[in-house]
């Protein structure tokens, strides 16, 4: 039977071998076929699934559909299932980790035995080894010092500690890259936090925080609309001046981070090629503020003018009106409105330093800032932190008062009106008509102040914002009185001089109180404004012993800020030159604050500071010469240069 079956079965020939191929191979004692298995595909096309055929997943038409001549959906199908997406993400993560581990291995290979041992010790102590690698990479970038081997700087534990502490204690945490390569995540996070803690609260409220941070955290400069590398570097440069941790880093690394951020911002500005954008306007404004802090505002004026020219090109109000009623454009409206009103407030404060009216007129669009609850019918609210939560002793920011910026806009409008009248009435100062207008403006401002909610009053609720608001109000009051003869009677028993000295005392007492409560560990430049406005009044009345104590306090407070802002030392040098030109000696208690200000008299040949001087006859006479254009406002730098040229001490 078996023999008959064997005769019926045909003999099988071996499988054909491909040209140049190998028919079979022996592995683990088994014979494996050389025929390749069918390629596995993620999913079949719709036709093959219905017919339960094998699909080769070719694009745009699979083989089975091509043979049958039917339309295949392979070209348009989405075969990225959740599982496939997860696998791809996992694959990308593993590739990144592999690259990082290779980089870590390469670093260990390059280090000396001692440095390698130190790095291994840190890896053993770290919970996440990649964090150690990241710190080392940032330190390598930050401390590329040609005078010493880079590996020595990389492993400086003091710098690592400074950056890690900055990151841990920052209220806002961001990644430095790809926005800046000047500093690491910790210092950049601290500087960004510092800007929104201090400058955004009153002095420079021009950037929408949420929009900026959302774009920055996306890590995609190409797609970002409200954050840019230029803006980030300009922002960091502006906040380095009062950052104690940044100064510690600079002391150890022997670098000037503020200058590094500034230079990086300038390079990035060149790449903008004059293109008008919201970020460019904001960044240019910050670069001007940096030039003022450095005492080089004369050179920095180009940033101020460029920012406002670009702002006009953006035509913010027209753009706002186009989207005024679009419910999907709320964020865009807030961004545009904050830029317009914030820039108007900032420019008004800046212009007053030069005794000018704001170059930006009052916006004709709604304010973006929240109204004080009392003005909307709500009850009084407690102070809040930077994120709007109730402020406590554990908060990482000073207390804020809801509605303070809305009221600051009111004060800015009154300052604009006062400066407008000063220009219009220049030929009639002190006449009956002029005095009537000024008295009316004083009454309006006082009435506005009396109507402030209790939590907006610095004598009841002393916060940085209420302190700045009070100082701003006094600035407007002084702007109304400054053009008048000091002996002009404004109201029964009060001359222009007496009222100005009264407001100066409030300003100086407020700054002294601020330093006592909040210290000068970190603060905004606007803190100096009160003492600066006051000392420019007091210097003309130093023959009156009643002003000596106030003058001494103002000098001391300004000098305290000189450790952070170089302009403060220039201001004191200017006051010293003014006292010399007026032939009035600086009061003995204040003289100690006018020594060792950083420059000898002979060096004041071309001072780059251009803060305007008050119009007083003796100073004007000194500054008048045949080459000065008529109507030009002279500045502190000019006075210092002339003082330097004189031989009389």
TrEMBL record:
One of its GO terms (biological process) is DNA-templated transcription. Residues 1-26 are annotated as: Disordered. Residues 44-72 form the Zn(2)-C6 fungal-type domain. CDD domains: fungal_TF_MHR, GAL4. Keywords: Metal-binding, Nucleus. The keyword Nucleus applies. The keyword Transmembrane does not apply. Pfam families: Fungal_trans, Zn_clus. Gene3D superfamilies: Zn(2)-C6 fungal-type DNA-binding domain. GO terms for molecular function: DNA binding; DNA-binding transcription factor activity, RNA polymerase II-specific; zinc ion binding. This is Zn(2)-C6 fungal-type domain-containing protein.
């Amino acid at each position: 039977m078996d023999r008959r079956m064997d005769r019926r079965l045909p003999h099988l020939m071996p499988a054909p071998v491909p040209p140049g191929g190998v028919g079979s191979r022996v592995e683990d004692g088994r014979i494996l076929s050389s025929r390749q298995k069918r390629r596995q595909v993620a999913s079949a096309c719709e036709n093959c699934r219905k017919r339960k055929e094998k699909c080769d997943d070719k694009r745009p038409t699979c083989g089975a559909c091509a043979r049958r001549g039917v339309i295949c959906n392979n070209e348009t199908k989405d075969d990225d299932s959740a599982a496939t997406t997860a696998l791809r993400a996992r694959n990308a993560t593993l590739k990144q980790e592999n690259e990082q581990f290779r980089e870590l291995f390469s670093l260990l290979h390059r280090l000396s035995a001692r440095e390698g041992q130190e790095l291994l010790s840190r890896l053993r102590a770290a919970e996440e080894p990649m964090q150690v690698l990241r710190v080392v990479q940032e330190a390598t970038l930050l401390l590329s010092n040609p005078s010493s081997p880079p590996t020595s700087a990389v492993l400086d534990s003091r710098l690592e500690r400074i950056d890690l502490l900055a990151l841990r204690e920052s209220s806002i945490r961001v990644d430095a890259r790809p926005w800046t390569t000047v500093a690491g995540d910790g210092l950049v996070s601290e500087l960004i936090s510092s800007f929104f803690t201090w400058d955004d609260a009153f002095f420079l409220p021009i950037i929408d925080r949420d929009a900026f941070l959302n774009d920055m955290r996306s890590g995609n400069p190409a797609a970002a609309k409200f954050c840019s590398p230029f803006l980030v570097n300009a922002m960091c440069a502006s906040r380095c001046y009062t950052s104690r941790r940044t100064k510690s880093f600079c002391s150890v690394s022997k670098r000037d981070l503020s200058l590094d951020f500034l230079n990086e911002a300038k390079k990035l500005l060149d790449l903008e090629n004059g293109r008008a954008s919201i970020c460019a306007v904001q960044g240019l404004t910050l670069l001007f503020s940096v030039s003022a802090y450095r005492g080089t505002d004369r050179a920095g004026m180009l940033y101020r003018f460029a920012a406002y020219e670009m702002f006009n090109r953006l035509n913010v109000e027209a753009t706002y009106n186009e989207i005024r009623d679009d419910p999907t454009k709320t964020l865009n409206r807030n961004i545009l409105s904050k830029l317009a009103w914030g820039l108007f407030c900032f420019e008004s404060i800046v212009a007053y330093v030069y005794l000018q009216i704001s170059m930006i007129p009052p916006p004709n669009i709604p304010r973006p800032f929240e109204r004080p609850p009392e003005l909307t019918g709500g009850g009084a609210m407690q102070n809040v932190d930077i994120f709007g939560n109730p402020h406590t002793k554990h908060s990482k920011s000073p207390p804020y008062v809801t509605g303070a910026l809305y009221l600051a806009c009111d004060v800015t409008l009154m300052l604009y009106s006062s400066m407008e009248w000063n220009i219009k009435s220049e030929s009639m100062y002190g006449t009956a008509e002029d005095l009537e207008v000024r008295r009316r403006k004083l009454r309006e401002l006082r009435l506005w102040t009396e109507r402030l909610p209790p939590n907006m009053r610095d004598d009841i609720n002393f916060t940085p914002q209420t302190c700045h608001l009070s100082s701003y109000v006094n600035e407007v009051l002084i702007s109304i009185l400054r053009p008048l003869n000091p002996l002009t009677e404004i109201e029964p028993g009060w001359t222009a001089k007496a009222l100005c000295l009264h407001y100066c005392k409030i300003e100086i007492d407020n700054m002294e109180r601020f330093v006592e409560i909040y210290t000068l560990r970190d603060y905004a430049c606007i803190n100096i404004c009160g003492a600066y406005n006051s000392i420019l009044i007091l210097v003309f009345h130093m023959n009156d012993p009643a002003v000596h104590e106030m003058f001494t306090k103002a000098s001391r407070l300004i000098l305290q800020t000189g450790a952070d802002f170089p302009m403060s030392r220039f201001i004191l040098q200017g006051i010293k030159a003014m006292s010399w030109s007026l032939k009035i000696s600086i009061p003995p208690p204040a003289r100690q604050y006018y020594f060792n200000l950083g420059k000898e008299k002979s060096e004041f040949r071309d001072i780059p500071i251009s803060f305007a001087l008050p119009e007083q006859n003796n100073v004007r006479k000194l500054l008048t010469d045949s080459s000065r254009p008529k109507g030009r406002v002279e500045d502190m730098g000019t006075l210092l240069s002339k003082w330097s040229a004189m031989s009389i001490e």
